[in-house]
Input
Amino acid sequence: MIQSPDDRRAPITPQLALRVAILGGIALALFGIVFFRLWFLQVLSGDQYVAQARGNRVRDVMIPAQRGEMLDRNGKVLVGSRPASVVVVSPPQLPPQGPARRRLYVRLSHVLELPTRPQACRIGHDRKRLMEVDCLVQKGVFLLPYADVTIKTDVSQAISGYLAERAQEFPGVAVESIYLRSYPYREVGAQLFGTVGQISAQALHDPHFRGVKGGTLVGTGGLEYTYDHYLRGVDGATRVQVDALGQAKGKLQQRNPIPGNDVKLSLDLGLERAGQAALRTGIALANGIGNPARAGAFVALDPRNGEVLAMGSEPSFDPTILTRPLSDAEYKAKLQDAADFPQVNRAIGSAYPVGSTFKIVTAAAALATGIITPSTPYTDNGEFKEGAIVRHNAGGASYGTVTLRDAIRLSVDTFFYNLGQQLNADPASHPDGGALQTWARKLGLGATPTGIDIGGEIGGTVPTPRWRDERNRLQARCEHAYAVNPKRARRRYSAGCVFADGTNRPWSEGDNTNLAVGQGDFLATPLQMAVAYAAIENGGTVVKPHVGLQVTDHAGRVLQKIDPKPARHVKIPYLYAIQDGLHAAASEQGGTSADVFAGFPAQYPVFGKTGTAQRGGDRADQSWYVAYVPDPVHPIVVACTIESGGFGAQAAAPAVRLILSQWFGVKKEIKTGSSRTL
Amino acid sequence: MSATPIQRSIDAVTRTRSGPRVLLDPWLLLATLGLVVCSLVTLKGATRHDIAGQPNYFFERQIGYAVVGLLLMALLARFDYSRLREFKLGIYGLLVALNVIVLALGGATRGSRRWIDLPFFQFQPSELGKVLLVVALAGFVVDRSRRLAERETTARVMLLALGPAALVMIQPDLGTALVYVALALSILFVAGTPGRQLGGLIGLFAVATVLVLVVAPAAGVHVLKPYQVQRLTGFVHPSNDPSNATYQINQSLIAIGSGEKTGRGVEHATQTGLNFLPEHHTDFIFSVVGETYGFAGAALVLSLYALMIWRILRIITLAKNLFGALIAGGILSMLTFQVFVNAGMTIGIMPITGVTLPLMSFGGASYLTTFLALGLLQSIHVQGRIAQGTKGRALILS
Output
């Protein structure tokens, strides 16, 4: 074999030397890059990666703290805390979307006894048909990405044991122990307590929750929100080392949880239950005479300091259902319009026209401005002329000559029309109204809420010239929107143009005379009315109502007292005349609620006023009763209203009698009144 | 009849039978053994929990591969590589045939068909193919060494390389396909192909890359599988999503960075020990070195590679003929490319490809291929020394 001459070469031509040098240069450059990158990663920024490696392998498994309980003023547990097992799904660890995940869902549904049949599921604005487990997971991911989703709470030992043993067969599914809220008295005061849930993304920025970590259970409404800081406690954690699959490879250290403190409330369980029952009685009474009442509310305050002794709203619900995942259908049936929105606390979250219960405000304004004294007589001939309009007393009654005391006792409308007319101020110089509006605001009525320590409170409305103009403007804007583009307007003003009557009329004297008897545009919450009557009882102190009383530790030691300062003190001249009239109304012959309180022990004198608010159209009137008993030991003021309950003496007043009977421990008797006054 | 070079070389080998090892390149041997030791030490620590009850599973196998590989290398070193030129067509045919066979009956693992299952190990033809291609291409180029400046030569050689590369790419093994292209370019470069033509080729590849990654997907044609695109482009934006290919880069960066100057030690290397680092015995073994032994360890390994590269450059110049220089040039590029792409991948400056780290990564195919290449290099060195010796030059070690 002869080697071809091509393959014979002189050792190292200059060209080859150059090319070898170039190859060497390229290799050197590449190695240089790797070297410098390594230097940068390992020497210059090593600490940062050490921290990341640590974060990789260390997981803190939360040990939830037991949430503090809420007790009534006598120490009875209203909202408890009990350990329970919950099944959660960690979406990132689920098998990939597809048959594998579906199989897991089906198996999990069988274990948890959940339906596997697809059902309607709403996620944000999307409507889908999904298996219940799938629906819950997708909804959870939509609401709180990165958080575990609770599939079922309070599962039995058998189920939690089964799942724990077969963790490999249920990837992404875990059983956790948590504390669940318990509500031993179910519907009683359900709207006050609020709910507990994982802190939301927005709530993390709420200064109220400063320092709270994501995933923590916090109060999301009501008292749970207000006193969350005390109730929450501090979650503990077990620090474990995990591998890349998230499986624990040993415990590193443990921090024990610190349970939350208890909050003692000013509520009295007995009164709370009696109040709730009394509301149902009031509603039944109204239904008995053909009024379509379904809802109502009451508040009982200690007039000395604003402690809420009881508060209730009907219809109510069992808050236990909120401690577990709810299906859409269940939510709709139990907590939405089908059930008249039982989660709304109508004692603070609904503002109503109040009818004649407002008359004490008119009286106070008239006495304070000096246009009348307790002895100023007024001759009622059954009607009151105001320009071309003639107004009558309710039921066409005529009472002859009356003073303030009798006007309150008998609820004489013409008397108060007259005061309203006299108290009307020139709208041009007094855009915020005259003495009547000023006194309403002084007594805690109007747009400013009372500031009670439960969320969801709204203010009412004290109509003024300025307010009327604003409403007319809104009405005009709405009507214009409908004229230009009805489709778009419907989206913005879904309820139609309901800001004013559409006549665009300015403030008139008639507005003020209407206000003087609590009709027309005035709105107040039952709580606002209770606060105003408390000021009549206590001589002019406008209290700040509160439900929280003190924070105690587990041994019952008081850590903090909750005793907010009153909003203000007002001086009402001749206050005794108003009080006298209220007492007469509930006790003397002809008094609007005298027959309701017939037989009520005289040692507990009742001072009360009926109210019947006209709702316009064919709607039944709203029944009101606000009363107080100036007992030296246990004074109390109660405001109660029944929506569509009819006259004050027909539904609300009998309910208040039941509440007062409970408070003073006297026999509960149901008596309705014959008074047909507004 | 005068003695042919082959006869001379045989004579030389026969003459020096008493001490042929003297003619091996000792520095190259040192680098080789150093890397084998590094690989074994790293594997022993990194894989002790991988298979329950068998802490030395990978370690023992790797020792086996190393012993077989070293024997293979020694054997090859005694053989005159020049004779392989005669078989270039057969070698090229074998290369193509093996890669076709693997496509036809290769075992499918994670959606790819790269292996032929043999009784003792999985045979990966694309690995062996690297060395086969180097030898075959070197042979073809030598045949046309007088017409190197012609475009036709360059085009033919590139087509010869691109054919197998395409076969490998559809297995799919993009990384190895790129190695084929790189070593072909390197062989042309050492052979003396004009710079203009090489520049043109590189330009062509750049255009092709843009076409495959940007233009074709935009037009709805997907040449690469989605996961490949993600791997190729993902290193630009590492993410935390474990389902994402860039998760691997992130974990690798954390592993290497957390090693700091001197490493965390075997016991405290949590990225490796707790499996955060994927494929820590094969593709990401460099990250293990970085985490366990820190900058010091990684720099040592890199230095051994640098030593190896330097010796290959030297061997190019020592080769007794063009064929040897071209083989050495091809192997130079093959090893440099693999080291840079693999180490670059672990430190986040190169895309994720399945390229192994020569002599470090666990795996029989990779190990044996590298030892074959090293055997060829030693053979070139031995033959070069013998040729120099017959010319009366002083035999200089190193």
